[in-house]
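#struct-pred
JK: can someone run the complex with iron/sulfur cluster? inputs below
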Amino acid sequence: MEAYIREIFNSIQGEGPYAGVRQVFVRFCQCQLHCEYCDTPQTRSNAEICRIERTPGKGDFYSIDNPISRDDIVEIIGNLWTPSTRHISLTGGEPLIHADFIRTLEPGHPLYLETNSGLPEQAQKLKDMVAVASCDIKLPEHNSTRDYKKLLKNELETISILSRTSQTFVKVVVLPGTTEQSISPAVDGVASIDENIPFILQPVTSDRPVPPELLFGLMDFAGKKLKDVRAIPQTHKMMGLL
Ligand code: SF4
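RT: done, structure tokens with the ligand placed:
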């Protein structure tokens, strides 16, 4: 099998409770959503070429043609592995679009899935393979889709599936316009699955910062129903990493 990949490189996870963990990132092409804060909009469509880091963490890229075979990707991941690297981060775009391909990988290292959670049938295919699942829940103000109700239902179904077999946490990007009302269905939905699932509020990285008082208020609002609520910014951007 083959897949369209945007880039493969070694870096440090910058989001959520695994921030600081070294990973090989495989950034897949394509996404079914269109969030207004997206920091990888170029990944929403297929790319003709994939850029590959030559030396782990150096940012010295070369290019190869897409699509790329399973064997080539496994070899590239092996070349980018280092003694402190702990996971293969499947990111995008939306990696669950490529679930059939990911099933063929068997790369010999733990898989860390970064998903928008919108494709539960695809999540079902990977549920026994993923060590860590970072599951987004989008908010209405993200403008990710025309049918928010359906997206939220799918996201909660994905979280329910993956949390049975993987270390799963939920990530919600907070915008300056986010309100208790807009995060309420996400909080209730996660609480109905398992109140212990970590619920990460990630203030958007932007020149319009999220006011601290808004973040504190949202944390306390979510904390009434969920046991592990945290606020974690995108730390890789602070370090100038990919
Ligand atoms: S789900 Fe992720 S990759 Fe897709 S549009 Fe939203 S932020 Fe971008």
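RT: quick notes.
Residues 148-163 form the longest helix (16 residues).
The CA atoms of residues 120 and 209 lie 32 Å apart.
JK: thanks, will look after standup
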